[in-house]
TrEMBL record:
Catalysed reaction equations from the record: L-aspartate + L-glutamine + ATP + H2O = L-asparagine + L-glutamate + AMP + diphosphate + H(+)
Keyword field: ATP-binding, Glutamine amidotransferase, Nucleotide-binding
The name this protein goes by in its record: asparagine synthase (glutamine-hydrolyzing)
Signal peptide coordinates: none
Length: 590
């Protein structure tokens, strides 16, 4: 895993000085602590910071072939197949990122169609003065760009563009309202005015410093017009083959790797598949447990599963004091903001795992592909049976906290709903909306930033084309049955690891953030309410009351969202570094 960045210039524009590239490289250093390299051309500059995973000795980037120069952040899982097809004699390194470069020589801008993996790639053709920016179809790896008078700048994170003064530290009010109501933002435009996302599966073609066109790959296959009925027995056999294939591909690395284990269906399925593969040393697993009254706790179940798989297991205990001590740094890593309180355990798990491994496998994507969320079951019911549209309520609806009622916060979700006509059923439409927005802009963003903050690569074997192809061909009855989502995945786990008890009621993995806030509600409420960015959008007296009532189910998430936004705004809009724990940071006037 790595960090990438660079600039391409319009003709007549003077290239930037080395100081700009150095600021970008410094801001990317946490993504690539093993070294930084530059490539300078008359009309472009490229930066790569490396986290060495494959071909440690010989895989430095940029990589060049003919007039093409590539920098990449990601892993190409079908690299061995590509090498066999093209011929190993055409390759000069053992890096899996050389495969996209060799494919570009043969297919031009269509090279991503031949890739299986997670990636953000920048490929510059100096002969044509053309830059291609490509992102994997699920959006596992991030990529952003900004247009300026003299061309286009791009980077793995918006914070890199801000650090180099290539974009203003200005938040879009529409995106801010979306963040408050949804806890993430949707679509191409980021929360920063002028900074855009390369969309999942998109390739942006930039010629002579100007965006010329875009093309996009879908993460989901088009459903066949006719297909024979898929029986449960056949589907289970195909799922077993797909899971084992994907997990084996995702384990490919020249460094130690491990697994985040929650005790839920997704991570238990990965553990089960990993335990069936030969390995020279014990698998390592990590589970978070929360120190709070009545907090959901699946640590014992996770530890039992790890023992059954003969894994070396560690439980990471998270307390309120640890959260308040580290929260400014946790929020600071979320430059593209997702106010998902699951960032807290993810960050602490990464902090521990980085002591022993360089790669982590994680179960993101299982709920979206195999229909695990309760909101899916609600979305597919007729209205007279309680069916409801997804994301119908915002976080601050009916709380009387905000000065002005957000009106456009659901625009991005509506656009995703309109863009999913290929889904054959209401259930698959609901899944497609989440795969388009919630997955890349919350779950995967959270995983990427929290792990990269500690120099860890995150891999998601459930988000693989082979797995997705099967999941998208499943009839609804193999996705949801009765009150159980992820039916087929549960059945597979029941066959291969009955100790996981996949049909038992789930305790959940909810972070007790409301209870923690309530313990210091008066102090936190006062500090948050006095922030200028909060006073601009909310009623201070109502904010203080909200924090003191944060233990309630509705008020806790809202209080957390305001706390997150206050810390995020201080770091990424005001440009101030965290200065101590959450109380010290919020108490600083400048």
């Amino acid at each position: 895993m790595c960090g990438i960045g660079g600039l391409v210039y319009t003709r007549g524009t003077q290239p930037c000085g080395q100081d700009v590239l150095d600021r970008m490289a410094a801001a990317l250093q946490h993504r690539g602590p093993d070294g930084a390299h530059f490539a300078r051309f008359p009309h472009a500059d490229l930066i790569h910071t490396r986290l060495s995973i494959i071909d440690i000795a010989g895989g430095d980037q940029p990589l060049s072939a003919g007039s093409g120069t590539l920098i990449a952040n990601g892993e190409i899982y079908n690299d061995p197949d590509i090498r066999a097809q093209i011929g190993p004699e055409h390759f000069t390194t053992g890096s899996d990122c050389e495969s996209p470069l060799r494919l570009w020589e043969r297919h031009g801008a269509d090279f991503p169609r031949h890739l299986r993996g997670m990636y953000a790639i920048a490929l510059y053709d100096s002969a044509q003065d053309e830059l291609l920016l490509s992102r994997d179809p699920f959006g596992i790896k991030p990529l952003y760009f900004t247009e300026f008078d003299g061309g286009v700048a791009f980077a793995s994170e918006p914070a890199v563009l801000l650090a180099a003064n290539l974009a203003p530290r200005t938040a879009s009010p529409i995106a801010r309202d979306e963040l408050l109501q949804l806890q993430f933002t949707t679509g191409r435009e980021s929360i920063f005015k002028g900074i855009s996302r390369v969309l999942p599966g998109e390739t942006v073609r930039i010629v002579q410093g100007r965006i010329l066109d875009r093309q996009r790959l879908s993460p989901l296959p088009s459903p066949p017009k006719t297909q024979p009925p898929l029986t449960e027995e056949t589907a289970l056999a195909q799922l077993d083959e797909a899971l084992m294939n994907s997990v084996q591909a995702h384990e490919r690395a020249d460094v130690p790797f491990g697994l985040f284990l929650s005790g839920g269906i997704d991570s238990a399925s990965l553990l089960t598949a990993m335990s069936r593969l030969p390995r020279p040393e014990k698998l390592r697993t990590w589970t978070a447990v929360f120190d709070a009254p009545n907090a959901a706790n699946e640590a014992e179940a996770a530890a039992a599963l790890a023992r059954g798989a003969q894994a070396e297991h560690q439980t990471v205990r998270i307390t309120a004091n640890k959260v308040w001590q580290h929260l400014p740094a946790i929020v600071a890593c979320m430059d593209d903001p997702a106010a998902d309180y699951a960032i807290i355990p993810t960050w602490f798990l990464a902090q521990e795992a980085t002591k022993d491994v360089r790669v982590i496998l994680s179960g993101e994507g299982g709920d979206e592909l195999f229909a695990g969320y309760g909101r899916y079951r609600s979305a597919v019911r007729p209205w007279w049976q309680g069916g409801r549209r997804m994301w119908r309520h915002g976080m601050f609806d009916s709380l009387d906290i905000l000065r002005n009622r957000p009106t456009r916060w659901r625009d991005g979700i509506m656009a995703a709903e309109m863009a999913a006509p290929h889904a054959p059923t209401r259930l698959s439409t609901a899944q497609a909306v989440d795969i388009a927005e919630w997955l890349p802009n919350d779950l995967l963003l959270k995983l990427d930033r929290c792990l990269m903050a500690h120099g860890l690569e995150g891999r998601t074997p459930l988000l693989d084309p082979i797995v997705a192809d099967l999941a998208w061909r499943l009839p609804d009855t193999l996705r949801v049955r009765g009150d159980k989502g992820k039916w087929l995945l549960r059945r597979w786990l029941e066959q291969h690891c009955p100790a996981a008890r996949p049909f038992a009621p789930k305790q959940g993995f909810t972070v007790p953030i409301g209870a923690w806030i309530a313990q210091d509600g008066a102090r936190l409420g006062q500090l948050v309410a006095q922030q200028d960015c909060i006073q601009e959008i909310a009623k201070p007296e109502r904010v203080r009351a909200l924090f003191q009532a944060a233990a309630a189910r509705k008020t806790g998430p809202a209080a957390w969202t305001l706390l997150f936004y206050a810390l995020w705004h201080r770091t990424h809009i005001r440009g101030l570094a965290p200065t101590g724990d959450v109380f010290e940071t919020l108490n600083q006037s400048s």
